[in-house]
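Standup notes
- DV: blocked on the single-chain target, sequence here:
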Amino acid sequence: MFRTLAIAITLGGAGTALAAQDTSRIPFPEGYRDWHHHHSTVNLDGHEPAGNVGIQHVYVDAAAREGLKTGKFAKGATFAVDRFAYSADDNHSLSQAARKVVAVMVKDDERYPETGGWGFQAFKGGDPNARAVTDGGIQCFSCHIPLADNDYLFTRGQ
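- DV (later): unblocked, structure below
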């Protein structure tokens, strides 16, 4: 409840503008697994938002990789987050399970000014035809707002 209220206050009147942003043209990132693998993380049960619990691999295209080096992201720089469920194994380890989503962030200051210049889209189960973002990226961006000092990215550095 408090988090939702804080997001509403932070976004102020931008909710309408965010919802109006067209993220339907953000393409599925074909070949992203051949991009630079930046890092992997595991979000355990209890992580917020709960939908992001799982093993995630972060891939960056050449423009995003250059942006991570310089701190300046060119139009079109793209991040892909390949998120999987996980299962606990008998030997106190986690194994990657079913793919949950392929999430995408694309830099375009002109097209997505209300979300820090980033467009957001996600593809359920990694299916290029199963778009998950229908609100102009407002839910995605709400988690990125506290990261304004890092161009709204959770990822840092090379």
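- Follow-up: Strands lie at 36-43, 54-60, 78-88, 94-107, 118-124.
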